[in-house]
Amino acid sequence: MDNSSGVGVLDKAALVLSALESGPATLAGLVGATGLARPTAHRLAVALEHHRMVARDMQGRFILGPRLAELAASAGEDRLLATAGPVLTHLRDVTGESAQLYRRQGDMRICVAAAERLSGLRDTVPVGSTLPMKAGSAAQILMAWEEPERLHRGLQGARFTATALSGVRRRGWAQSIGEREPGVASVSAPVRGPSNRVVAAVSVSGPIERLTRHPGRMHAQAVIDAAARLTDALRRGA
User: Fold this and answer.
1) Residues 188-210: pLDDT tens digits?
2) Locate the IclR-ED domain: which residues (predicted)?
3) Are 220 and 175 spatial neighbours (Cβ–Cβ below 8 Å)?
């Protein structure tokens, strides 16, 4: 069977990625597995590394890069959104607060689904809202499990610290009190894809007067339960 697409450089890049599917490879290993000339294999591997589709392990060998996992997670977004509606509605009903689902996009986070309070003071975050990754409990969740280099960059100018994110990883949830917006508190937990990578954050938010200065005590378990339901849905659909 001819696997050629007619676009030579893409066919060769696909060969490199396929060769790495079975595990780490040295440049010599890539040459042997792909049949490519050594300079060609090196040039393609380095170019794919630039786009984070290839990375290096501690021994300097080539491995599949984090961008592939990110693309795979995005492929599951429709399934995530299809499940999010009823989960967020239930979360809103049990907490009495607005509920949101955020995904990271570059240096920002986007509200991709929400369930608003039906009455009273509403602290709305409309679907499609783009918020910074520098403040707020959802930003903490989307940042906490990042690879070290990206985590270090993301902490520059952030309202939270590496120590705070260590606590988030230990607890499995995050809270913020007036961090993104004065007078507003929130609690968030991670949604994980089939590879266990954090792909989204589930949140509830409302005025500090209602959520208090310890919002996690009130709502962490409900938010964790909602995130677990979405995680299960993604894993069942994988």
Assistant:
1) 999 998 888 899 999 999 999 89
2) 67-236
3) yes
pTM, 2 dp: 0.68
Structure tokens at 161: 């610290």
Of 237, 225, 152, whose CA–CA distance to 191 is shortest?
225
Q: Which residues of 154-167 are buried (b: 16+ CB within 10 A; e: fewer)?
A: bbeebebeeebbee
**Cα–Cα distances in Å, from 38 out to 35, 45, 65?**
9, 11, 21
* 85 within 8 A of 113, measured Cβ to Cβ: yes
Closest CA to 69 of 236, 234, 228: 234
- Sign of the Cα pseudo-torsion (94, 134, 132, 73, in order): negative
Cα angle vertex 113, ends 112, 118, to 5°? 150
Assess whether pLDDT exceeds 90 at residue 125. Answer: no
* Per-residue model confidence (pLDDT) at position 22: 82
CA dist 87 and 167 (Å) reads: 26
